[in-house]
Design goal:
globular, alpha/beta
Length: 350
C-alpha cells in the first residue's frame, strides 16, 4: 500500500513538474526576456506578435508585369497613407509592399507587385503563387512615409512607386490641399493605375520614357517654400528630385530598394553572451559575419526593411543604413543586414 502511494506521489510530482516546464517554455516563447514583460518588438529581433491572415479575393494586372492583389479579413488594422505591410510569401520570404487602396475600406487591403526577373526572387514567387482564394500572412502596417498636414504638396512617382502615392492623392484632395504629381515610367503600358489618375486632370503629368525621355524635373525648381515633396521610385530618380528642389525644401522619400551604400571598412564585433569576437570585412555585412558564428541568427529581407535581424547594441557607435528603425530604436539597436560600425568595434547582446 505504501509503495503504491509512493508511486502515485512521484507520478503526481512528475506531472506537476512537466506542466510547470511547459508553462515556462510558453512564457519564454512569448517574451525572450522573461520574467520581464513581453515587448511588442523585442530587442532580440524576434517578434511574438500574432500574424495577420487575409484572403486574396481578387488578382488582376493593372499594367504589364504588375500584379494587383485585394486582400480581405475582419482583423486587418486601420492604416494611413504611406503605410506598407510585410507579406510572408509561401516560401517564408518576407517582402514589403505599400498599401495602395483606400484607408476608408475597412477590412480590405490592396497591394501591387512589380515583376523583377533579375531580382532576389520575391516578386517572381508572388506572381507565380499568390492566387485568388489563397490565404496570405501579413504583419501589421507600418508607416515611415507619413503624409504631413500641408496646404500644398508636390508628388513624384516612378513606376511601381505610384503605390504609396495613390492614397496620399486621395487624402490631399479630401483635405482641400493644392497638389501636383509627376509620374514617370518606361511606357504607358507598364505604368499601373493610369485610369485612377485620369479624374485628377492637369494636376497629373504622365511622363512615359518611350515618349518623353527621362522625366523633366525642372518644374520642381519652382516649388513654393515650405511645400513638402514626396517621392517614391528608383534611387536615381530620388537623387535627381533632391537635387532639383530648392534648398530647404522638405523632401520625403520612400525606397523599395536600399540606398546605395557608402564606403565601408573592416571592424570587429564582440558577441557578449557568446564570448566571441568576429572580424567583419569591408565587403561583407555584419549579419554574414555573425551568422558564421551563430548560423541560426534570424533574418529575412537582407535589405534593412523588415526588422527581423534587429539586435541590441551594448557598446560602440553604429552607422545606421536602414530606413526602418525609429530614432529611439537606433539608440540601442541595429539591423545587422545593412548597418555597420562607425568606429572599429561594436558589442552586441548575442
Amino acid at each position: 500500500m505504501r509503495r503504491a502511494l509512493k508511486v502515485t506521489a512521484v507520478a503526481g510530482a512528475a506531472g506537476v513538474a512537466w506542466a510547470a516546464k511547459r508553462a515556462l517554455h510558453g512564457r519564454i516563447g512569448k517574451s525572450p526576456l522573461w520574467p520581464l514583460p513581453a515587448l511588442e518588438t523585442p530587442v532580440s529581433g524576434y517578434s511574438p506578435r500574432r500574424p495577420l491572415r487575409a484572403l486574396i479575393v481578387s488578382r488582376t494586372e493593372p499594367a504589364e508585369g504588375v500584379l494587383q492583389l485585394t486582400l480581405q479579413s475582419p482583423e486587418l488594422p486601420a492604416w494611413t497613407p504611406g503605410a506598407h505591410v510585410d507579406v510572408t510569401l509561401p516560401s517564408g520570404l518576407v517582402r514589403q509592399y505599400s498599401l495602395c487602396g483606400d484607408p476608408a475600406d475597412g477590412g480590405t487591403y490592396r497591394i501591387a507587385i512589380r515583376l523583377v526577373q533579375d531580382g532576389r526572387g520575391g516578386s517572381r514567387e508572388a506572381h507565380a503563387q499568390l492566387v485568388e482564394g489563397a490565404e496570405l500572412e501579413l504583419r501589421p502596417p507600418r508607416n515611415r512615409f507619413e503624409l504631413v498636414p500641408a496646404s500644398s504638396y508636390v508628388f513624384v512617382a516612378g513606376g511601381i512607386g505610384i503605390t504609396p502615392i495613390l492614397p496620399m492623392l486621395r487624402a490631399a484632395t479630401a483635405a482641400g490641399a493644392d497638389w501636383t504629381l509627376l509620374y514617370g515610367g518606361r511606357s504607358r503600358a507598364s505604368m499601373p493605375f493610369l485610369p485612377e489618375l485620369s479624374p485628377y486632370g492637369d494636376r497629373v503629368t504622365i511622363l512615359p520614357q518611350d515618349e518623353t525621355g527621362l522625366p523633366d524635373l525642372s518644374p520642381l525648381s519652382t516649388t513654393r517654400p515650405g511645400t513638402p515633396v514626396y517621392c517614391c521610385g528608383p534611387d536615381p530618380l530620388m537623387r535627381a528630385v533632391e537635387a532639383a528642389v530648392p534648398s530647404g525644401t522638405p523632401v520625403h522619400l520612400e525606397r523599395f530598394t536600399p540606398a546605395a551604400p557608402g564606403p565601408a571598412k573592416a571592424f570587429t564585433v564582440e558577441l557578449h553572451r557568446s564570448g566571441r569576437t568576429l572580424e567583419v570585412g569591408p565587403t561583407e555585412t555584419t549579419l554574414a559575419a555573425v551568422r558564421r558564428a551563430l548560423p541560426n541568427t534570424p533574418y529575412s529581407c537582407g535589405q534593412g526593411f523588415c526588422g527581423t535581424c534587429q539586435h541590441r547594441v551594448l557598446s560602440g557607435e553604429v552607422d545606421h543604413r536602414d530606413d526602418l528603425l525609429t530614432d529611439r530604436e537606433r539608440e540601442d539597436s541595429m539591423l545587422l543586414c545593412v548597418s555597420r560600425a562607425k568606429g572599429d568595434h561594436l558589442t552586441l547582446d548575442l
